[in-house]
Amino acid sequence: MSTASLDCDDFFEATALPENFQGKKQSIETFVERHKGSKQPVVLVTSGGTTVPLESRTVRFIDNFSSGTRGSASAEYFLDQGYAVIFLHRHRSLLPFHRHVQSNILDHLTVSTAGSDPLITVQSDKTEKLVPILQRYLDAQSKGRLLLVSFTSLGDYLHLLRETSRALQPLKSRAMLYLAAAVSDFHIPANMMPEHKIQSANGPLQLSLQLVPKMLRPLVKDWTPDAFVISFKLETDKDILVWKARKALEQYQHKVVVANVLDTRKMEVTLVTSETQEPIRLPEKDATEGKEIEELIIQKLSELHSQFRKASEKS
Ligand code: 9Z3
Fold first, then answer.
1. Where would I find the DNA/pantothenate metabolism flavoprotein C-terminal domain in this sequence (predicted)?
2. What is the ipTM score, two decimals?
């Protein structure tokens, strides 16, 4: 076994399981089992940022930036493309379909108590937008095609990522992993973490963070070697972006990196494969009409996945 995968094993050994791990594992396995008999592709979408706790009884933590828009929008477009979706997301980040409902929804409802049962009505200017969203949501729900699983910390995320990847392996090339979550590269290992809240009376705080072992390596090699794996590369400096994406592909040998720059991520990404490099841009006009770049990304990735499946099934 390589040193890198030993690092990963050590990480899992030292890091507590997430709350209700067995329940989550069971629901993932049941979901995969239910979709095993069909020809439908299944995708794991990861979304939102991971926290890195500074104390075991956590009061403070470091967070990775992500609102969950990329992941939740992508999950909806995957459903439209006929995928069953496991949505592994940061607790309280944006959820597919729910993201369209504003937090002040109560301001747009009226109640009529004329009949025997009170009737809630949505203001008519909102129904036009809500009806198609609700229909797509109810359709996914009734067909059991969307599973929501939440995480908070880096440790929770990685335990659940490993479990879900392993559960997807029997689906072979029918499985896709779309790793859009913003995952910390640094952490404080459990044995170096104070138990109680760090006290300000002790003076200024100096933090020393360790590197998180690169989990894409065992994921591609051991956990789910036959799946179509897509990772994301986020940079703030566009000049190093594609180079970093290529380096990741060479290192981990997966299929695609979606490369994006923080400031322009809603308008432009580059799909990088070992042979190609294709920019995807959302025209300004489409953006003003409410279209989203995720629709274009998912269209392209489902095409690539379908080609990959055909090639894998032949060999
Ligand atoms: C991304 O790059 C996502 O596209 C964003 C989406 C997090 C920028 P939002 O949720 O943002 O719509 O607000 N995700 C991957 C980020 C990441 O952690 N990548 C690492 C890296 O770049 C691991 S591959 O090194």
1. 42-93, 170-282
2. 0.96
